[in-house]
Structure formats: structure tokens, C-alpha cells
Amino acid sequence: MEKLSKLPKIYLAVVFMILYAPIFYLIYYSFNSGGGMSNFENFTLEHYAAVFEDKRLIVITLNTIIIALLSALLSTVVGVLGALAIYFMKNKSMRKAVLSLNNILIVSPDVIIGASFLILFTIAGVKLGFTSVLLSHIAFSIPIVVIMVLPKLFEMSPTLIDAALDLGATKRDVLTRVIIPFIKPGIFAGFFLALTYSLDDFAVTFFVTGNGFSTLSVEIYSMARTGITLTINALSGLIFVVTVLIVLGYYAISRKAKAPLAEVKR
Description:
Blueprint: H1 2-29, H2 46-53, H3 55-87, H4 92-107, H5 110-124, H6 130-155, H7 158-166, H8 171-182, H9 184-200, H10 203-208, H11 216-226, H12 230-265
């Protein structure tokens, strides 16, 4: 029985090794003073220095961060409003239909979404660049926020709203003092997921970028096509570290948000 109980742990360990081994291999050689990924010569930070000395790369990094933050913020606002609209729908058939349409956008291939946005922006006369990338990132992030917020709404007891209304609260008070505080963990989760999706996205961005505008994912792809250099390793390592910090930040904030709720339940 003890051996059987260890099998899931062993399986998870193997899965995580397969997933993370290439990443750590890439980061390991980012400190290599040699020019390749075959023989590790000496420890160096010159490849990281090259990343920070490349002004064009710094501009692209800033573009990527601005796009990610703006798209995450705006998609969170729209996604929360969308989740509230779905939650308060009285027609169950309409609610299921809207949820299905929302889920289709999540599971649809990025290539199809990117091509669709490219056609839409071309027809609408929107120049490919910052605006097109921002709009597309907002669009594919909204369904993610909706999916993260809705479960928290369905966990909320309707009696909380009824009690607030009976005590004389306005609809605005109910929204700002009852609903929003309760679904705050879902809002944070949606924001951070939208942020990471925007930072990582390549397929959609590749279709809608243009006019000299680029993001890190597209730039790394372009750099890799001309030949793998250890600068790419260093840049990828930095992105991985930033992503880990974002995830840790999300967990820290979510734990703080859950703490007051746990005390209330006690």
C-alpha cells in the first residue's frame, strides 16, 4: 500500500522534471562564457549585460510590459462586468449560451483568433501596431477573467445581497461593499492570468503586430530564426523569473484576500 501511495508523487515528480528540465537547461547555459550550449566553459553575466545594453530590446520589453498591464487592467474591468451580467441573467438558456460562447473563445486555437483579428483590423482600417496588439490582447483576456470571476459569484450566497437591500443599501452599495469584496480573489486571479497570457502570447501578437512595433515573444522568435545565441537564453531566463514572481505575488495577494473571509466564517 505504501508503494502505491508513492506512485502519484513519483508521477508528478517525473512530469515536473520533463516540464522544467528544458527551462533550467536553457537558464544554466545563459551563464556560459562560451558561445554555444554544448560545453560549459566559465560562469559569466555578459549575456545578461548584453540584454540590458541593447536599447532596442529594452524598448520592446517596455512595450510588452505596457501592453500586458493595460490589457490586463482593461480586460479585468470588462470581464468583471461581463461576469456580473451573466450571473444576474434570469434566463438560464441565455446564460448557458453566453457561457458557451465565452468558453469557445478560450479553447479556440490562437492561430484562428490571430487571423480573425488581422482580417478585422484590415477591414476596419486599424493600423497594425500598438493599438491592434492592445485590442487583441484585451479581447482574448476577457473570457479568462470571466471564467475566474464567475465561480466566486456562484459561491456567494444570494442572501447577502437580500440582506444588504433590506438594510437600505443601494445597488451601488451592494456592488461596491458586498459583491466586489467577496469576489476580490477571483478578480485578482483574472488580472494576473490576463497579465501572464499577454506577456507569453506569440501567435495572436505575431498576426496583429506591425509598423516597427514588437513584443518580446515576437522578438525572441525573430532572434531565434537568425541563429540561437546565449542572449536569447538570458532574455528567456529573465522572463521566466518575472513570471515566477508574478505567480508568487498572485498567491500572496490571494492568501491575504482569503484570510478575512476565513475569520468571518469562524
